[in-house]
Amino acid sequence: MGLNPADGLVALVSLVASTVGAVCGVGGGILIKPVLDAVSSIDVATVNFLSGATVLSMTAYSVARSIHAGSGSMDLSRDTPLAVGAAFGGLAGKQLFSAVSGLFGNPDRAGAVQAAVLCAVTAGALAYTLAKDRVATRHVESRGACVAIGLALGTCSSFLGIGGGPINLVVLFYFFSMDTKRAAASSLYIILFSQTVSTAASLLTQDLSAVNPAVLALMAACGIAGGALGRRLNARVDARFVDRLFVALMVVIIFINVYNLAAFGAVRG
């Protein structure tokens, strides 16, 4: 299977989403997943895999570059327990998605569930972000608590097929009192672990015959390119700009998921 002109739109979405995701620390799947659901005819499970693989390529590049550069933007003693918990959550999220898909005669109906949950999660994250200056935050130190928090994040992101998302940043803001740029770096590290496990599980257990290898390679390349561009932009902007971009991103995501929720219900019922 080769590429066709419509795949140019897929590449553009992957590049833009990965760039914004690298700047904000939300992975990129938070945009790729709902946009492909809205504009493509690809089934939900395949979109989940393609989105996750793109996020994996972007986060692998971004995290490797951060560690190599020794930027000090991550605290591995705290971030690693979070990431380990997220890795186990990646497996749990895959199982949860399979269970939800099995509840419907048409597995694509699970897309409506994903759209509804993602819309609600994003709306909650937006409300918190707008009010965060008035919210007292915590300073969690326990490694066990970090693993449990990571487990919840990994489960949520894997189930939704987004790799990571606004909930990562909100949790890092609240439980660890991180500023925006510090949280973005930690979020990408957590996403890398959860998405590695989730993608490996898909390769081992999922029927991927519908995946076009050329499209997969194109999206992965765009993920790396977006990661490189996003790192450069993140280094040049301040935390206030990242906050504004994050808010704008969440508003766009909410509208896309409202559309998808209606579309899944009307067309794929």
From TrEMBL:
Q: Which residues cross the membrane?
A: 12-32, 44-64, 84-104, 111-131, 151-176, 183-204, 210-229, 241-262
**Keyword field:** Cell membrane, Membrane, Transmembrane, Transmembrane helix
Where found in the cell?
Cell membrane; Membrane
One Pfam family of this chain: TauE
What InterPro entries would the database entry show? TM_pro_TauE-like (IPR002781), TSUP/Inactive_protease-like (IPR051598)
Family of the protein in this entry = Belongs to the 4-toluene sulfonate uptake permease (TSUP) (TC 2.A.102) family.
Question: Which protein is depicted?
Answer: Probable membrane transporter protein
